[in-house]
Design brief:
The chain has about 250 residues and is mainly alpha-helical. It has one domain. It contains eleven helices and two strands. The chain has a two-stranded antiparallel sheet with strand order 1-2. The protein starts with a helix and ends in a 15-residue tail after the last helix.
Length: about 250
């Protein structure tokens, strides 16, 4: 089964390599369609995510901090194999050390003692790994619910589920070191991460909506700059926005 998954992942990488070599970075693939999907996503945000985010922000700070720590700790699992693929030994040490300490001493990640020890792992995914090897972003478009992406990052999103240990023990229902879960566990954590992100950026998004002539273009620019910064492991030009992973 693992060999089959590896073959699938290699096939995905080959496709993205072939696709992005002939496509200019940040070129719009289907702008009219993307704008229509963006409008749908914003309507969904108004009806579902924004109310949830505002309710979430009323929770006590220790609850919000603990939730953010917990979801971030699980997210670190995806960073570990990507650190290996990128050959980033320093960040590999930060990721492994942070996850080990926070999961044990930090009570399943609700606390973050690793940060006090100087461990600050970067969030890494397959899209960033491909970018670190020089694979271009390809054209930009918007996915329903998932939001802004590029050819490289959308392929990376699929590949993440083959590489992420958390995905293996939940949606793929494999057992790793005696730990297993199910799809509900996976989507519950991912959904909580989305609400946490939306709540953290509630004021930023409100200001952007008020001050932007074209909100679609503004969010496109923020997304592409954020992805470029992550590939370079840079925090430059991220302004006051929280981590744009969702």
């Amino acid at each position: 089964m693992q060999i089959k998954n590896l073959k699938t992942l290699i096939s995905i990488v080959v496709i993205v390599l072939l696709t992005t070599t002939s496509t200019k970075a940040a070129e719009e693939c289907f702008e009219k369609t993307s704008r229509a999907i963006f409008k749908f996503n914003m309507t969904l945000d108004d009806i579902v995510l924004e109310p949830l985010a505002k309710g979430y922000n009323k929770l006590p700070n220790p609850v919000k901090t603990g939730t953010n720590n917990f979801t971030s700790n699980i997210g670190t699992l995806l960073s570990i194999p990507n650190n290996v693929l990128q050959g980033n030994v320093k960040q590999l040490g930060h990721s492994v050390g942070s996850f080990a300490i926070n999961t044990t001493v930090g009570i399943l990640g609700f606390l973050n003692p690793a940060e006090k020890l100087g461990l600050k792992p970067h969030k890494e995914d397959v899209g960033q790994t491909l970018g670190s090897y020089g694979v271009g972003a390809g054209c930009y478009f918007v996915l329903p619910i998932f939001g802004p992406t590029t050819v490289r990052d959308s392929v990376g999103l699929i590949a993440d589920t083959f590489l992420d240990p958390f995905a293996h023990v939940t949606i793929r229902e494999n057992e790793i070191l005696g730990t297993s879960g199910n799809s509900l566990d996976y989507y519950s954590v991912r959904g909580t991460s989305v609400v946490d992100f939306r709540a953290s950026n509630d004021k930023n998004l409100e200001n952007l909506e008020k001050n932007s002539i074209d909100l679609y273009s503004s969010l496109k620019s923020i997304y592409l700059q954020d992805r470029e910064n992550k590939i370079k492991n840079s925090t430059k030009d991220q302004d006051d926005w929280e981590n744009l992973d969702n």
